[in-house]
TonB-dependent receptor
Amino acid sequence: MALGVSAQALVAALALASFAAPAFAQDATAGDAQPAQDNEEIVVSGIRASLQSSANIKRNEAMIVDSVSSEDIGKLPDVSIADSLARLPGVTAQRLEGRDQRLSIRGLGPDFSTTLLNGREQVTVGDNRGVEYDQYPSEFFKTVNVYKSADASLVAAGIAGTVDLRMLRPLDSRRAFVVSARGQMNEKDKLNPDGSRYGYRGSATYVDKFANDTLGIAIGVSAQSTPTQNERYAAWGFPAEPLAGGNHFLGGAKPYVQSSVLKRYGGVATVEWVPSENFHSTFDALYSNFEEVQRLRGIEFPIAPTWGSNAVIQPGYTVQDGLVTEATLTNVVGVQRNDYNKRTAKNLSLGWNNDLRLSDTIHLVVDASWSRATRTDFLLETYSGTGYNQSGAKDTIHISQNSDGTYDIVPTLDYTNTGIISLTDPRGWGFNGVETVVQTGFLNRPDFTDDLKALRASLNGEIGGSIFSRWEVGANYSRREKQSRYKSYFLCPKGGGTNCTVASGTPLSVPVPADALLDEQVSLDYLGVPRMLTYDPLKVYALLAPYFDGRPGSLVRDNVITEKVLTGYAKFAIDGTVGGKALKGSLGLQVVHTKQGSSGAIAALQDGVVTASPVAGETSYTDFLPSATFSVELDDGFFIKLGAAQTMVRPRLDQERITQAVNIDFAKIGTGSQPQNSPFSSTGGNFALKPYKSGNIDVSFEKYFHGGGYLALTGFFKHLTDFVDPNDSVLYDFSPLLSVLPPAQRAIVVAQNAQFGLVSQPANTGRGEILGVEATASLPFSVFSQALDGFGIFASGSYVDSKILYANNSPVTLPGQSKWIGSGTAYFEKGGFQARATYRWRDEFLAELAGLSANPEYRTGKAEGVLDAQIGYEFQSGPLAGFSILAQAKNLTDAPFVTTEADDTRLVREYQRYGRDYYLGITYKF
């Protein structure tokens, strides 16, 4: 569609409007908004209290915001923060490992939003900026706000939106001690013998006040062990196979079963002190320790002959609309995998906010924070088969496509027979860049450190006799450093040779040790493989010899990114009456000066020798970000809200790295003078990359009802500039590398002027527009009739369309964007009894997955719908008062996660089925 509106022009047109300020870290009571004056006070609890609190926040803000509030101390409405946020309009989640982790807001993936904790920017244990929300125990938060329009005092806002996680404030809360425990069971029995289907979760929260309610503390602890079972299928792709009439043919497949367990414990502490009316101090701390272990077992089958499988297609295969859906193949050599992945991560966040009243109308606010995350991965692959490099027994398999797009693969060989199966490199894939190696396994050991320190100071005061009610000026300085270190190793049998090379005499295979074998064999019968050899990969790892992977592409992944950001801002808040209508809002400006840099290495391979040279670079730039919002109450409970702003979000951290992997292709010498014919090329990052920018227009119509509930319709438009093309190419003079060429070849290159080659790196060459509409209905049925008191719904839906182009005018599909998303929650809650069901649906989208060596890959995700439900009861009187019991079920639709080739939904690339999860929990409030 054509989107011809100029966002910059609309920003300028609305810049004369009036606006209201959001409540950020220094405004601790935002999550405790009271009912509006025109609403009767209704004493409710549970989800009704949560929805009412969220509605009050939305109503009282001049910004466009959606919120999730806790139902009680230590209890958000859903199993996780991401589950709760995915119910909000314009927000959807991609499931990874059976959990909602990767959030998209208004069609833009996690790289385009920012996550705050009590108003402060947070680091992440992920590979880039996107926060993994399962790092944060949901029990620790009172409110989660999603700001969709901007304000000058909202530092580090995102283009898509800003998620602000808010801990409770003890002086605004009642005294309480709450403990809860919950058991979990997956409907699938453990798919691996060393896995588990049972888990638990426990938490305790203590809130108290002292010294005549001038000192408050809140302490929370949480621990959980969450298992998941995953039947996984991955197809390599679907090449056109000449030996099958040129029809698309399954290139290869990896049926797996995965058993995972996530263990996390953490704690929070808040100390709030108000010794006098002139001083208010709040200290927050959050710590989370996260460990996830994955056990994966399966068989990788190279299938299509055109992709080098050496398999033979037998006559009589079946073709449907250009795709081979059934065939028998001989001479097949599969690779058995017994893999083990372990991720450990720690997250620490500290913040100290101090509000000092300098006079009756002026306050000084100083806020200091530190956020630090560390993560280490241990990604172990081990291989077994019938012989080294296709030298052993061959298999005959029958493949047939199922109705869900996966393929059954029925083998003839007994893959549990240790008489023919050994630890080896069955396909001879091992290659270190120079020589063939015996790759019996591979180990990736990346680790990351993300550190962010910030100091913020501001002055704010009141303005009398004017529609402008307050002013605020401030500055925020932050320094973020993310270190990424990658180490990888080839693993081969011990007993001879050096560096795992075949030529040096490394053993080509060794028997599977008997003490590593497990008594129970894994079954892949859900896709036709009855059993496979099952052993402990850690015991096998101890018997293998490691050889460091020193290829240029591996060495240049190590890097350090540093960002030093100074943000100054000023704004005027409005709170008054115009034409008899209540008006509030704000006008503001941010000036953001950034100095960013990177250090790492440039590596190349020449004559079998890897050379790596350290490199570092730094750049700086300044951005001006005006913003304006206003909210006018045209009629009783009817609001129109407008927002206009220029916002920005920084690119992926891995794109800001300076590192480059240089390639010298001797075969291209003498082929021409065009850059693509140069023997020199390079691939890497761009330390001078600038942020994505967006001019935004937001309009919201909101109607709030007496007795609770509201309807909202919101439209938004974003004009994107400086959009990052991750694969841009620029011309580069490689003359300094001419000396590595032999004299005769050097002369040819110079004569053809072929020293000018291409450097592939990200660049700010894209632009585009996003247009969308969101609708929300939060309706307690008591607004229709008191006979329906206790019943209600919360429903939302959104539509997003985008047109993004790179410099060559090639269109871009935004990762995470579904054109249509919707969710609905129906509930009943009264007299301590509660029941609810939530259904979330999203249209197809571009999914992001971890590819080879954890590099991101993108494929089309199929539309999916997920149904969750829960039922519970809380005793409200008698000896059990304060005791409650809750039963929950997640993913009742057993919806699989499926990705396909973009042009044909029959060509399924990934298929993951997690099964249903059931929970039973108890809570006691003292």
